[in-house]
Specification:
binds ribavirin triphosphate, globular, about 160 residues, 4 strands, alpha+beta, four-stranded antiparallel beta sheet
C-alpha cells in the first residue's frame, strides 16, 4: 500500500481569476483534498503580466495569447502545489477537457464552466512542467514538505 518514491509527483494547480470571482476556491480545493492528494503550497496571488507570459510561453504564437494573458492577470488567482502518486495525470482527469462543453460531468470544468476562455482552473500537463511551474509560482519557503499521519489500518 505504501507507494514507491519514484511514483510520487508534484503538480501545479491554479484557480483562475473567474474561479476566484465566482467563489469556487473551496469547491476546487475540496476535490483534490477529497481525492487524497497532499497540499504542499497554497496562496492567493495577483499575477503580474511577465509571470503570466512565462507560464504560458509555449502558447506565445497563438491568436488567443494576448486575451489569455489579460484573463490570467485580470484578478487574483489561487496557486496550489499538490503531491501524490500519479497526481499530474489524475489532476488533469479531475479538471476535465480544456473546452468545458466537452468536459465530462463530474469533472471540475464539466460541472462548473462553459467557456474555454473562462475554464476556472489550470493543471500542469507533465511531471516536468509540474516542477517547473511550482518553481515559477512559489518562492522558496512557500512550499512545505510534510507527510500526512498514517492511519494505522493502512499499514
Ligand atoms: P491549462 O494549461 O490552463 O490547464 O489548460 P489546458 O492545458 O487544458 O489548455 P492549453 O491548450 O494549454 O491552453 C491554456 C489555456 O489557454 C486558454 N485557451 N483559450 N481558443 C481559445 O480561446 C483558447 N484556447 C486555450 C484556456 O484558458 C486554456 O486553459
Amino acid at each position: 500500500l505504501v507507494a514507491s518514491m519514484e511514483e510520487v509527483e508534484e503538480t501545479y494547480i491554479m484557480v483562475k481569476p473567474d474561479g476566484v470571482q465566482r467563489g469556487l476556491v473551496g469547491e476546487i480545493i475540496s476535490r483534490f483534498e477529497k481525492k487524497g492528494f497532499l497540499l504542499k503550497g497554497l496562496k492567493l496571488f495577483q499575477c503580474p503580466k511577465d509571470l503570466a507570459e512565462e507560464h504560458y510561453k509555449d502558447l506565445k504564437g497563438k491568436s488567443f495569447f494576448p486575451k489569455l494573458i489579460d484573463y490570467i492577470t485580470s484578478g487574483p488567482v489561487v496557486c496550489m502545489a499538490w503531491e501524490g502518486v500519479g497526481v499530474v495525470a489524475s489532476a488533469r482527469k479531475l479538471i476535465g477537457a480544456t473546452n468545458p462543453l466537452q468536459a465530462e460531468p463530474g469533472t471540475i470544468r464539466g460541472d462548473l464552466a462553459v467557456q474555454t476562455g473562462r475554464n476556472v482552473v489550470h493543471g500542469s500537463d507533465s511531471p516536468d512542467n509540474g516542477k517547473r511551474e511550482i518553481d515559477l509560482w512559489f518562492k522558496e519557503g512557500e512550499v512545505v514538505q510534510w507527510t500526512q499521519a498514517q492511519a494505522p489500518w493502512l499499514r
